[in-house]
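Narrative summary of target 7.
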Amino acid sequence: MAKASVSVSSLFQDFLSLLFPEECRACHGELAIGEDVICSHCRIKLPYTDFHLSPQDNALHRVFWGRVPIQLAVSYLMFQERSRVQQLLHQLKYRGREEVGEVLGRWYGAQLQQQKAFKEIDLVVPVPLYKAKLQQRGYNQVSAFGREIASALQVPFEEAVLKKGRSGKTQTKKNRQERWEAMRQLYLVSQPEVIEGKHVLLLDDVVTTGATLEACATLLLANGAKAVSIATIAYTL
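Modeled conformation, tokenized:
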């Protein structure tokens, strides 16, 4: 009887999908039955970095050379304007589509789980949002991605470790040194006991100059973290 019930429920969901098909968050085409958030065509066409295959020697890792000692540095996708990746991040950040981060985190977590280097990670920490921005958006856009990464690595996801102390003005027109000086005063560690002696995987959505990640990584190390690694959804060309 239970099997029949499950079968009827499944058929009903398939029927609803035919009447009201979900759309792909990358191309806005209709998702086929069995597809989730991103269609198979877009999944194949996404510009993957493969940084996880060389997490200590890639373009992202080299961004931090001479700035802050980063153990591992990886990004899942390459970011370009007017691309599928930009559309996915727009949906995630501004359209309330937190499931985009969840799916990307699940896919990337499965890859990181296979890499020996990531077995040394002790916990996952996201770059925080300012309190007012968090209240306005309702979620940190990197949290769903981070929870899936943490689940794949079988380590805790600690969202409250880092805090953004005040709202900063836009950093886009500043050079790297100016961005660093502004960022340096922007963040604080609210729970140093959680990171003490731990290898922290620090997460963000997109890397541009790396100033935010540099500031947060420096702060984590200064407050007792044994090592800091970085993972992001996307890396800007």
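Residues 1-6 have pLDDT under 50 and may be disordered.
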